Structures
1.
Amino acid sequence: MELFFLRHGIAVERGSEGYEDEERPLTSEGKKKLIEGIRGMKRLKIKVDKILSSPLTRALQTAELAKEHLPVNSEVEIEKTLVPGGSYEDFLKKLRSRPEASLMLVGHEPAMSSWVQSLLGCPPMGSVLLKKGSLCHLKIQWRGSRPFVELQALLQPRMLRQID
């Protein structure tokens, strides 16, 4: 299985008047930069069978932009374990039962970086940082109940936007 962890794009600042945290949308600049980054993913020929997204607005908007610009033949699926504070153990259980060969997971910090670190067997603090719009590509083989994981790429947003 291939996993593509995509952190949501730049959103309206936390605490902005008129927005609850769950409802904060992507900004115009956030959408623009994210689309440029997703076009870089397309140039890398990234293909996914399914996009799973946190239900929060900024993540759903990010997932929909990825679906629009990448070759994905299915609707975005809401995955509640991808919310801020979601359970890594629940995420692993659900991941293990998925039939797809490749998944894009759209979510939030600090869970995204923490889960990547855990999958790679890194120490818990500061080994991986997914900035807004970053992409991390992992390849997973299940050996019994445990995943064997290889890091394929960690691409920060600026790198994705510069891919020709």
2.
Amino acid sequence: MLVLFCGLAGTRLVPAADVPLPSSAIADKVVVLKSERKLMLMKNDKLLKTYRIALGTDPLGPKTRQGDHKTPEGSYLLDRHNQRSQFHRSIHISYPNADDRTRARRFGVFPGGDIFLHGLPNGYEPSPNQTFEDWTDGCIAVTDPEIDEIFRAVPDGTPIEIKP
């Protein structure tokens, strides 16, 4: 855990990401900033918590077709929770939306689908000092304890805005 010291002896500041989200917290919107690798849970336009994320292996630009390893950009819904995922847990993102389908048609390609916010693959045990690079096929990944928190705090139908 990263600990920052300030001018007062014995005072510690713990990064917000290390502070558990209160069990009563319910988000009404999720915002993803791809370039900053951040996912923010929001309630009434106020920040509840920020998480560090991993994206698709080709993260620059919007997803345009199946198999491009890009994470979509745009407005979607987190429309269904999956406790029996190939990852620790997952929440489906409603990609493709109408704009994505129109763009794919224009290029003569299939837009793809099966985009999720999820934890780590089942059975995977990261080392304590491991850092994560972008590794998904276009999904948004967090650690297993983080997806547990998000899974509880984000009801089906919650809007998610994925920005460049």
